[in-house]
Amino acid sequence: MSTTLKRTRLFGVLAHVDAGKTTVSERMLFASGRIHRIGEVHHGTTTLDHGAEEKKHGITISAAASSFTWQPAGMDEHHLTLIDTPGHVDFAIEVERALRVLDGAVVVLDAGRGVEPQTESVWRQADRHGVPRVVFINKLDAPGASVERCLTDLAERLGARPLLLQWVRADGTIIDVIEQQALQFGPDGTVSRSPADEAERRELLVQRLAELDAGVMEAWARDEDVSSSTLHAAVRRLTCAGQLVPVLCGAALKNRGVPPVLDAVVRYLPSPEDRVLPSGLRAVEDGAPCGFVFKTDVDAHVGSLAWVRLFQGTVRPGDSLVVRPSLRRERVARVLGLHGGHFEPMTALGPGGIAALVGLKSARTGDTVTSESLDVVFEKLSTVEPVVQLALSAKSTEEQTKLGEALRRACLEDPSLQVRVDGETGQTVLCGVGELHLAIWLEKLSRREGLEVRASAPAVSYRDTITGVETVTYRHVRQNSGPGQFAVVTVKVAPSPAGAGVSFVDDVERGVIPAEFIPAVERGARAALERGVREGVPVVDVEVTLLDGLTHSVDSSPMAFEVAASLAVQQAVERAGLCRLEPVARAQVTVPESFLGPALGEVASRRGAVQGVSTVGPVCVIEARVPIARTFGFVTSLRSRTEGRGSVSLSHAGFEPVKA
User: Fold this and answer.
1) How far apart are the first and last CA of the chain?
2) pLDDT-based confidence at 55, cuts 50/70/90?
């Protein structure tokens, strides 16, 4: 095992918006000595929220990274790389990018709010990628703060098995249960430790670990005093295996509790060698280089950048890499370390690290970069479906051409954006995840390109689905001078569960349709559903089954079968019956109890369906599902009704049938 890799951690900080995620990240950089002055989100001075739009809006928009060293007491110095991610639902693609390359994560909870909608979203994303987590309960000094509620939420709403490693006394003192120490934090976040007799709580923790870990069980069964090192090792094994989640507490804005979180990152989160890597790769320094491009960017001074997580091998300036799947061979001009908005030249990038590579001009988000000798292609990045759109126009033909090129570059940088041209009006339409997502990109276009762009009011993107099952046989026969076209297909369309997307099943008897024509049938079927049959609205959640067909020895071709399948599916969908779907959001509305009535009225006025109402201390929390088309201006209107004391958080909840 490489000593260097063993002492490497690549982790992210994840949270719902306003839980204090960037504040935690900033304190981590300060505690480690990476920065010498603490920046604040509300002043626009943090290291990681460095973009102009981030400073203006006071939120994280793009994932940002920095590296530093940390040495817990009694351990060797470790090299840590941190990626700070957005908490707003509109920028979920940045979280997805990060989770594709992280080895572990710190999830930040607001102690007064517990698990919020976007917390659930990022937690599920981390589950999908198998990323082990540590939880930090932040804002212990806030009104209504409750560690117990957070633990309950973790267990009940996320299905996690939280293990509280710290206890908070009534006077606010934080107790390290394993080490039996009281932690005192100075104004600058430095921590001092003194003995604390919490033997009963430690025994309960030992018993809980003994239920899950054989090493602790063996020592506990012998009635031995289980050592701290044994407990730390057990927590690490169980955390890396996803069997429990260590939980710590603090108040980052007051510089309380952050150094123990860094200790937990080192002690409990995996190193690159501990992770199961894609395609069976191992994190070894002397292997053939292989990495994943999780982000592309353009810097005004440096040029095009490819953010790469290297899984294996070492990359140096001057090395040649193959960009897959395009198979373009590119030369790495520079390797740049990331520190917020600054770049630091590196002599080499090793396994388990991330860096911005200059020179990979053909690299796109989701590509794989390898040496020429290694034939590996990682799975592409999952993107969030855009559901809100704006029609854009520029003031002149010249500006319109410039706008088109700027939008093309924007889509390469942010895969959750889509650009299309409306077939009826000829307008350029920009599609994004939400209202804020599109507003931020309009600001970027103005700042970067100097474009004056006129935009329509936001509108949502609808979908259709089918309500019945239908089978259609379609004959596509064309006979002109020269080669003809002949293809006959029988297809069945049937509804799939909500959110299942489009699936294709080849159920034709072997040999009836040559195997080389089957992919063309699938392409035609998918194209028909994407094109839609009503107003150009795509059809989703459909299973298409190819049942039968006929061929001609001369005139059949992949193109003929693609056309036949497309028209067959179109007819089948029309006959099966269509249902219009609209995107909906899960809304969590928090208001003082005295404003519950007006808040419920606001939800009802937006066609919201209330799922439940709960009371947490002095506030009420309304859980509802609201059509995204009715969420525009939601926050402003709610604040008006509640004298500025209400808040709304939204997360995407898929599509539902449009209700009258």
Assistant:
1) 63
2) confident
SS3 211: coil
List all residues 6 or more positions away from 107 whose beta carbon is below 8 Å from its beta carbon. 14, 15, 119, 122, 123, 126, 133, 134, 135, 136
The pLDDT mean for the chain works out to 89
My answer on whether 362 and 447 are in the same domain is no
Q: Is 210 helix (H, G, I), strand (E, B) or coil?
A: helix
Asked whether 335 and 347 are in contact (CB, 8 A), the reply is yes
Give yes or no: residues 81 and 141 share one domain: yes
Same domain, 267 and 120: yes
Rounded to whole angstroms, how far apart are CA atoms 464 and 511?
A: 34
The C-alpha atoms of residue 448 and residue 453 are separated, in whole angstroms, by: 12
Q: Are residues 417 and 517 in the same domain?
A: no
Query: The domain containing residue 60 runs over which residues?
Result: 3-199+247-273
pTM: 0.82
Verify that 543 and 634 share a domain, yes or no: no
Predicted local confidence at residue 562, as pLDDT? 95
What does the alpha-carbon distance between residue 22 and residue 84 come to, in Å, rounded to a whole number?
7
Q: Which residues of 57-69 are buried (b: 16+ CB within 10 A; e: fewer)?
A: bebbbbbbbbbbe
Confidence of residue 1 (pLDDT cuts 50, 70, 90): very low
Instruction: Please count the residues of the chain.
Output: 660
Q: Residue 412 is inside which H or E element, if any?
A: helix 397-413
Looking at residue 654, its pLDDT comes to 87
CATH number for the domain harbouring residue 95:
3.40.50.300
Show the CA angle centred on residue 527, arms to residues 522 and 528, nearest 5°: 100
Phi, psi of 235 (to 5 degrees): -60, -40
Domain for residue 223, yes or no?
A: no
Q: Is 264 helix (H, G, I), strand (E, B) or coil?
A: helix
